[in-house]
Amino acid sequence: MVERNPLLDVISHAVMWLGVAIVAFPLYLAFVASSHTAQDIVQAPMPLLPGGNLWETYKTALFGGGDGAGSTAPVARMMWVSFVTAMVITVGKISISLLSAFAVVYFRFPFKMLCFWAIFVTLMLPVEVRIGPTYQVVSDLGMLNSYAGLTVPLIASATATFLFRQFFLTVPDELVEAARMDGAGPMRFFKDVLVPLSSTSIAALFVIQFIYGWNQYLWPLLATTSEDMYPVVIGIKRMIAGGDAANDWNIVMATAILAMLPPAFVVVLMQKWFVKGLVDTEK
Amino acid sequence: MEKRVLFRSSWLPWALLTPQLAVIIVFFFWPASQALVQSLQVQDPFGTSVEWVGMQNFRQLFSDSAYLESFKTTAWFSLLVATLGISISLILAVFADRVVRGAMVYKTFLILPYAVAPAVAGVLWLFMFSPTLGVVAYALEHVGIHWNHLLNSTHALTLIVMAAVWKQISYNFLFFLAGLQSIPKSLIEAASMDGAGPWRRFWSIQFPLLTPTTFFLLVINMVYAFFDTFAIVDATTQGGPGRDTAILVYKVYYDGFKALDLGGSAAQSVVLMVIVIALTVVQFRYVEKKVNY
């Protein structure tokens, strides 16, 4: 820092503590609630320190068998659905975006700009504004309640394509010339030069898209009607169908924690790339 | 901008583009055009009869007081989410930029909500503010506030704003922090040598240099409040009490899938599309301007 100012340092730390407290309080409360029995929690005020029911709560949540008013389906299955969905969306988005960005940057062909703009325009058509007809299409294709239905409609990505295009444009032309001189064709160049060079962007996008896929709500709400295809984010909503006291709040909160763990893990683990990716993609 | 050296092939680029184009044609352009067509039709809920009605759906929409009310709710909601979210994260970023010791720990905590799904954020806040068993609702009772978002629309709106802001703080925070750290240190040092204190430096150097970031975040936060908060509303208030927290996206869903008014829902989708296009154009203008710096 520029100058030493002890008072300002104290204020800075105080503000940071306040911020962290606001962010962490709901998370802490969820954890505490998940460590008690359902009966303990409905006694207002609920306990603010962890209890001894942690293991049982998570076991009931993961494998089912709760007796709450809403859905009591096993969360382990939901976590699996969420995981597969998020992975397919992430890998799918990254691969088709890499391929299309490669096509628009490294080839000259008729209607090239039209293709690029067609992809770019999809930014303006979020799933929320076309839910009815998209649901119709997916249902006509018989893709409701399937992984295909959960993932394919979300796989196109204007942002990822745009990001890779921008990145490819900065790759020196000499690399193409060198690859050509060595007798490498376009796909060879793509596989051995371009993809390895893009690994940082790929990692950053992986974090962002995994979380995007994991946290999807509106689309799975429409595309799944059978309990064994619910992602965990939908599952948790179905659990709170009963009144305040009728829900097994300890199990709901355990599910909330479970639903947060994988994306939180990805964010914390890949913090550096994630920050870089976030700042680069959107600007 | 184009590469000097290109590969030559007449079929390969099309093969490369096929997956992306197939997805956007089937799941973006086709449904979007269907939404346009449906917005000009009246269909009975079972899809047995369809009638062209031209602009009637739109006329009906804009003379429907519930829809106009939903517009107002959305405007208020987005404005509150954007301004609160941006100002809180700006404050946090400015102080985080000063802190050296423990910075990593603070930052890790502050970006955690990014990983939390909006629906889960909604459930967490619902739990804290539940009128019968919520800890915060209990505490509020003691200071004389009788919290009940199931009956009181102001409370309901406050609840979804809080959950939405909580969820969005980390995103804004990261951008502000990146913006602050890209300001050259020499600029700050020069100013402090000229006798400018931290307060003065913030208002005359840091804040003006952050205006582009702030503007960008304003657009992003508006889009977030318009569309991504559906899950928060659905998980906490379900548009209630009455229809007082039914934001536009929630109403599209409700009218189309619960009330089965397909034409009306499609017309609302078209209105939303116009709003997204407007916001995207603004954002694009901004991106172009940024390139000229």
Question: How is this structure best summarized?
Answer:
The complex is a heterodimer of chains A (283) and B (293). Chain A has two domains: 6-63; 75-280, MetI-like fold. Helices cover 69% and strands 0% of the residues of chain A.
Low-confidence stretches of chain B: none
Bin the strand percentage of chain A: under 5%
Q: CATH H-level name of chain B... which superfamily?
A: MetI-like
Q: Give the assembly state of these chains.
A: heterodimer
Radius of gyration of chain A: 24 Å
Structural class of chain B: mainly alpha
Strand-residue fraction of chain B?
A: under 5%
The Cα radius of gyration of chain B reads 24 Å
Shape of chain B: globular
| Terminal-residue CA separation of chain B | 18 Å
User: How does the helix and strand content of chain A classify structurally?
Assistant: mainly alpha
Q: CATH homologous superfamily name of the largest domain in chain A?
A: MetI-like
Major sheet attributes of chain A: none
Membrane topology (chain A): Multi-pass membrane protein
Pfam family, one (chain A): BPD_transp_1
Function (chain A): Part of the ABC transporter complex UgpBAEC involved in sn-glycerol-3-phosphate (G3P) import. Probably responsible for the translocation of the substrate across the membrane.
Protein name (chain A): sn-glycerol-3-phosphate transport system permease protein UgpE
